[in-house]
Each structure stands twice: as structure tokens, then as C-alpha cells.
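Postdoc handover notes: sequence design on the structure in folder B. Input C-alpha cells:
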């Protein structure tokens, strides 16, 4: 093979490797820049739902300090639930699925989801306790909006009575 052909192939290979590495790095960065909320929404890390409230600096600090470990715990629990769901799918793939084992895994998933919902509820009540009455109203409007993945429009006072 000619020296010039070899150099050309080497340059093409180098360009491909750099582009693959760049794409992989970008995808990693893009994934690590977001977290999944308990409602299934992708939210940028460092952005908190409560930042849309008119918080006093000490309220914001306290809520942020509580939110970071809460997010980490919810992330761990979500991963555990996803692993159980994968286990369930693998059990169902079998030629002769064991229905009792499948029922056990379904019960385990349900229990994990129930525990997660309790943790979310307790966290929300703790956050609510830090807020004034108007802030509480907006807080639950934001949560309701996040759950429905809509846009914040607020609720009229009669909708809550």
C-alpha cells in the first residue's frame, strides 16, 4: 500500500474516533445534567421546583438542603424499581413462567412504589411546613402541574374548597 493511502486511512480513522468520542461525551454530559423527578419529569440538576415560589433566602436554603438528599434517595429508589421491573420482564420471557414468582415480584414492586410515595408525601409536607399560606397554595399548584406535565396556570381559590 502506498504511504499516502495509509496516511489518508489513518486520518479518516482518527476523525471517526474523535467524532465517536465526542458524541459519547456529549451524551454522557446531557444525561448527567438532568434527574428524573418522582413524577417522571426530566429536570435540570440544580433547578428546583420551589424556586418558582417567592421564598425568603433562609427558606430557599433550607428547602435546597432538604431537596438534594431527597433527590438522591428518590433516584436510588427509582433504580431499584427499574431493576425489579426488568426482573419481572425476564420472568415473563420464560417458556413456562412461574406465576407465583411473578406475583411475588409484582408485590415487591408495589411495596417499593408505596414506600416511595410515602417518602414523597412526607417530604412534601415537610416542605409545606416551611412556607406561608400563599406560598403553600402556589407550591401545591406547581406540584399538581408537575404531575400532569402541564404548564403552571394556577388554580382559582374555589377549586381547593
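Designed sequence:
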Amino acid at each position: 500500500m502506498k504511504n499516502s493511502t495509509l496516511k489518508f486511512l489513518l486520518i479518516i480513522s482518527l476523525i471517526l474516533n474523535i467524532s465517536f468520542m465526542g458524541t459519547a461525551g456529549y451524551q454522557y454530559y446531557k444525561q448527567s445534567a438532568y434527574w428524573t423527578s418522582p413524577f417522571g419529569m426530566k429536570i435540570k440538576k440544580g433547578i428546583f421546583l420551589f424556586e418558582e415560589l417567592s421564598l425568603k433566602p433562609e427558606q430557599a436554603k433550607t428547602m435546597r438542603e432538604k431537596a438534594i438528599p431527597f433527590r438522591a434517595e428518590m433516584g436510588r429508589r427509582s433504580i431499584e424499581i427499574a431493576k425489579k421491573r426488568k426482573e419481572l420482564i425476564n420472568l415473563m420471557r420464560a417458556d413456562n413462567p412461574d406465576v407465583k414468582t411473578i406475583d411475588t415480584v409484582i408485590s415487591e414492586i408495589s411495596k417499593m412504589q408505596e414506600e416511595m410515595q410515602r417518602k414523597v408525601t412526607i417530604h412534601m409536607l415537610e416542605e409545606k411546613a416551611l412556607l406561608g399560606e400563599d406560598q403553600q397554595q402556589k407550591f401545591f399548584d406547581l406540584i399538581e402541574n408537575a404531575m400532569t406535565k402541564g404548564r403552571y396556570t394556577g388554580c382559582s381559590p374555589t377549586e381547593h374548597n
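Context for whoever picks this up: Confidence is low (pLDDT under 50) at residues 150-161. Don't rerun without checking with the PI first.
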